[in-house]
TrEMBL record:
<feature type="domain" description="NAD-dependent epimerase/dehydratase">
    <location>
        <begin position="91"/>
        <end position="210"/>
    </location>
</feature>
<protein>
    <submittedName>
        <fullName>NAD(P)-dependent oxidoreductase</fullName>
    </submittedName>
</protein>
<dbReference type="Pfam" id="PF03807">
    <property type="entry name" value="F420_oxidored"/>
</dbReference>
<dbReference type="Pfam" id="PF01370">
    <property type="entry name" value="Epimerase"/>
</dbReference>
<dbReference type="InterPro" id="IPR001509">
    <property type="entry name" value="Epimerase_deHydtase"/>
</dbReference>
<feature type="domain" description="Pyrroline-5-carboxylate reductase catalytic N-terminal">
    <location>
        <begin position="4"/>
        <end position="74"/>
    </location>
</feature>
<dbReference type="InterPro" id="IPR036291">
    <property type="entry name" value="NAD(P)-bd_dom_sf"/>
</dbReference>
<keyword id="KW-0520">NAD</keyword>
<dbReference type="InterPro" id="IPR028939">
    <property type="entry name" value="P5C_Rdtase_cat_N"/>
</dbReference>
Length: 293
């Protein structure tokens, strides 16, 4: 088995996954349209290429494990499949595992109720609809061409450099409050764990929610973060009094609790950070330690 992983897209999650898997003996081939990203990387075991036909051919031909994290857009439902679907189909016999990173936005608004992988999609908005369409295209390749596709519906991602710490330190003067609103989250290290578990025990055709154990309102997470940092809480401002962007409105329109029972049962997932409190405590400790250096 070749220890080579191909990554289409090299954003926050893909970069963290790449670094973790290099430490576990893998070589990474990734694509990024950003010249700055391609030139900034110095790890000899992570090769970042431009997103071209040549790089795609190299990745698909040489990597038995593939992760697609480029989000869909209205011009092309999936940028990889719109360009390289025939190449993937021709390489089905070589590929052992494909992960498509989707999002829990596909479920839409369930008014705070729990959702599982079998839950229906209720008014998911533009982003959720595009995600669902991309999922269906990838699952078609599993159903009709035996490509080992796995769908991972990620909850709100947080981790180093991308958490409520950055939000509360960004000169914010209030926390947004919407009654009965909750969000599900997942720490980046636990995403990596889920992908690693799946890579080593493939279950083609499956969809997985990737979330922690404790959905919570964003203002509670911010209040907890401030308390851990020994800072005063921010005043709450009702969402109706805030002029949100269309993306912000879509984000707050969706209210659900995302179940992680399936990844625990099928993949034996044991979260390192079962709740946002565990994750934020670790991030605050690391942040405060960095200030002392």
């Amino acid at each position: 088995m070749k220890n080579q992983i191909g990554l289409f897209g090299f954003g926050y999650t893909a970069q963290a996954f790449a670094k973790a898997m290099v430490n576990r003996g893998f070589t990474i081939y990734a694509t990024s349209r950003s010249r700055q990203v391609r030139e900034a990387l110095t790890n000899e075991n992570i090769k970042v290429l431009d997103f071209t036909k040549e790089s795609a051919e190299q990745i698909i031909a040489s990597c038995p494990f593939i992760v697609q994290s480029i989000p869909p857009n209205e011009q092309e439902i999936d940028p990889v499949l719109s360009r390289f679907k025939p190449l993937l189909i021709d390489s089905a016999h070589r590929i052992q595992w494909i992960a498509y990173l989707s999002a829990t936005s596909v479920y839409g608004d369930h008014q705070g109720e729990w959702v599982t992988e079998e839950s229906e999609s209720l008014n998911p908005g533009t982003t959720g609809i595009l995600r669902l369409m991309a999922e269906k295209e990838w699952l078609y390749l599993y159903q009709h061409h035996k490509l080992p596709v796995h769908i991972f519906r990620l909850a709100g991602i947080y981790g180093p450099g991308r958490s409520s710490i950055e939000r509360v330190l960004s000169n914010r003067t209030f926390s947004i409050y919407k009654p009965h609103q909750v969000f599900s989250r997942i720490h980046i290290e636990d995403i990596i764990q889920v992908l690693d578990l799946s890579l080593h025990q493939p279950t083609p055709g499956e969809l997985f929610n990737v979330s922690d154990d404790l959905p919570a309102p964003s203002h509670e997470v911010e209040a907890f973060t401030l308390n851990e940092m020994n800072l005063p809480p921010l005043p709450l401002v009702h969402i109706d009094k805030i002029n949100l962007s269309p993306a912000g409105l879509e984000f707050y329109r969706s209210n659900k609790r995302v179940s992680n029972t399936k990844i625990k049962t099928l993949l034996n997932f044991k979260p390192k950070y079962p709740t946002y409190k565990d994750g934020i405590k670790a991030l605050v400790t690391a942040y405060q330690s960095s200030l002392k250096k």
